Structure formats: structure tokens, C-alpha cells
Amino acid sequence: MNSRPDILHGQSLRALNTFGIDAKATAYLRVAGLEDLRAVRNDPALTAMQRLVLGGGSNLLLTRDFDGLVLHMTNLGIAVAGETEDHVLVTAQAGENWHGFVQWTLQHGLPGLENLSLIPGNVGAAPIQNIGAYGSELADCFHSLQIFDFESGEIRTLTKQYCAFGYRDSVFKHDLRDRAVIVDVTFALAKRWQPNLRYAELASEIAMRGIASPTAKDISDAVIAIRTRKLPDPAKIGNAGSFFKNPVVSAEKRNALTAHHPALVSYVQPDGSYKLAAGWLIDQCGWKGKSLGAAGVHEKQALVLVNRGGATGADVLALAHQIIADVAQGFDVMLEPEPVIV
Ligand SMILES: Cc1cc2nc3c(=O)[nH]c(=O)nc-3n(C[C@H](O)[C@H](O)[C@H](O)COP(=O)(O)OP(=O)(O)OC[C@H]3O[C@@H](n4cnc5c(N)ncnc54)[C@H](O)[C@@H]3O)c2cc1C
Questions:
Q1: DSSP per residue over 20-54, as a string?
Q2: What is the C-alpha separation between 53 and 255, in angstroms, rounded?
Q3: If you measure from the C-alpha of residue 241 to the centroid of ligand 1, how many angstroms do you get, rounded to a whole number?
């Protein structure tokens, strides 16, 4: 027998999104475990509502009050789940803070996630856009995850192949959108660990520190130092990290652009296409450090939109649309927002 979930009405989401946007939820529930999700599904009035699964709110732009049910994932726990010949399997509950989890793995002598240190948000959201940074992405160390399927009411285990991870992409943005709540995630951490210094800025930070054979902790410390220097702290100025994905274009398109813009920053991809640095494109359009109303573009990072104080989601969206239009006009390239727009 399920008890009635403890729903709050008119809850402010301001402290629950890193943009610091002041929006309210018609209904709000702190989800401590599966029993809460089952109770929601067994309640016809709640099931009929639109749902928003919320983690750390660091990849969200709230453009209005949310007329539905916010399921705020707060389930906690980290445990070694087993091992294979080559890997240790570690499972973390969705509500665990991502950076806290990465530090837990390092403290327990389980390297592999160090390049993803200090990414804000929770473990349960990390697979949604296959978080990535400094030459690594979640998919590199992913084993499997469990979802609560709101359609069937079942718990399902999904493999890496099923999750269809891509660049800031996964099945959760497509077939399983609005249907799956990620409950926990299991990582496969290699027993024979090798440092990943593919990202040039990270390699030079390690070299600058005079470290010849870095440990995973050294790499984590270097990533933390670079990120702290480069990215605005949401506790000080509201933001959701990179607001745009780096657009991927064909080699022909990239060569045509380079002919007109020799300084274009681009990175060749394994399939021969090119990823363009969206921050460079935005900077070239003169947006770095500029504002439109209370929303602005960060002074150091043109890819990061910020709330300069009291911005609404609509203000941020208006700025984003203006930037998209300018980049399209200047380079014939369409930028796509990275955060989920609600
Ligand atoms: C300063 C800063 C730097 C950042 N740097 C990076 C970076 O380097 N690389 C990177 O990839 N991202 C980065 N981000 C973006 C963000 O941190 C990640 O996308 C993170 O994984 C979002 O986690 P969250 O818990 O805050 O998700 P939320 O913002 O709460 O949610 C994001 C999306 O996931 C869904 N969701 C959340 N939890 C679940 C769940 N348990 N089940 C199903 N759906 C769920 C939500 O419904 C929403 O659609 C950065 C953000 C900030 C503010």
C-alpha cells in the first residue's frame, strides 16, 4: 500500500536552478527513492500532470512558472557493485552530487572520472547529455543505469548501447524523453588506469605544475584549477555553463568558412566532420561581455550566458535568440542551446 506523496504547492525554484531564475512549480516533490516514484504513478491526479525531473538545476532555463509536477531527485548512496577482470563497478544514486561522487571514487582509489571533476549537477542528470569536459565524457566510463519507466511503472536496466550516447546527446533526449526517471548509474572504472591528457590545456597545466607522472588526483586538481579560473561560479553569478553546443559541420563547410575567416577555431572529428568553437563565433559577433537587459554574455567566456541580476528566463532566451541570429547571419551556422528550456 503506497502512502500519498508529500507534495508542496507553489514551491519557488529559484534556489534550485543555477541561473537563479525566479519561477514556481504548481506541485513539487522531493524524491527520496523508488517508493516516491511509485506513489506518484499510483495517483491519477499526479500522473495526469506534466512532469519535470530536477537534479541540480544546472542545465535548465526556466522561462515561466512550471504548471506541473517537479520531481526533485534527492536519493543518495554510493557503493562498489562488483568487478570484472578489467573493471570495478561503482553505483551512485541519482541525487548524489556529481563532483562529490567523482571525489569519492578518487578517495577510494578508483580513477577514471577525474577529467570530469567540478561539473555541477547530480549523477542522475549526467547521462542525459553525456556530460563531457577536458578530453573525456561520461560514456567513456559508463556501464549501465536503472530507470523508473513512467509508462509501464517498471524498473528497467539500460545498457550503454541502449543509451545511444553522442555529443551532448542520449536516448533520454529522444525516445525516452518525459518517460524515464534515472534512479541510479553504474560506472565501470578501469583497473589498469592511464592518465588522459589529450586536452592540450590540461596537459600544459600538469606540465606547468612540474608533474611528470600525474595521478588521477593530480589531474582532478588541475581540472578544478582550470575550471575555477575560466568559468563563472553560479553561486556568484547565475549561469548554466556553456549555453550553446559547439556546432558540427562538414569538411567542405569548414574549409569554406576558413577561406573567409582564417582564425576560425575548429576541431576535426573521427568521421571527418568538424566541430566549430561556438565561443569563437559568438566572440566574433561582438557579444563577449555584452548584455541585453538583465541577461548577458560572460566577459571571459562568450559561450556562457549569465543572469546579471533579476533576469527572467525570457530575458535569457531573448539574448540567446539574438546571438543565434547574429551567428547565422555572420557564418551561416546555426547554434543550438545546450540547456533544457522549460
Ligand atoms: C558552471 C557550469 C559549468 C558546466 N560545465 C559543464 C561541462 O563541462 N560539461 C557538461 O557536459 N556540462 C556542464 N554543465 C552543465 C551541467 O552541469 C550538466 O549538464 C549536468 O549534468 C546537469 O545536472 P543537473 O543535475 O544540474 O541537471 P538539471 O539541470 O537538474 O536537469 C537537466 C536535464 O536532465 C533531466 N534530469 C535531471 N535528473 C534526471 C533524472 N534523474 N532522470 C531523468 N532526467 C533527469 C532534467 O529533466 C533536465 O531535462 C555546466 C553547468 C554549469 C552551471
A1: ----EEEEEEEE-SHHHHHHHHT-HHHHTS-EEEE
A2: 41
A3: 9
Ligand 1 interacting residues, C-beta cut-off 6 A: 18, 52-60, 73, 94, 119-122, 124-126, 128-129, 131-133, 180-182, 231, 234, 239-241, 340
168: annotated active-site residue: yes
Q: Is 242 among the catalytic positions?
A: yes
Instruction: Tell how far the Cα of 302 is from the centroid of ligand 1, in angstroms.
Output: 19
CB-based burial, 115-139: b 16+ in 10 Å, e otherwise: bbbbbbbbbbbbbbbbbbbbbbbbb
Averaged pLDDT of the chain:
96
204-251: pLDDT as tens digits: 999 999 999 999 999 999 999 999 999 999 999 999 999 999 999 999
- Element spanning 159, H or E: strand 155-159
Specify the residue with its C-alpha closest to ligand 1, atom 38: 125
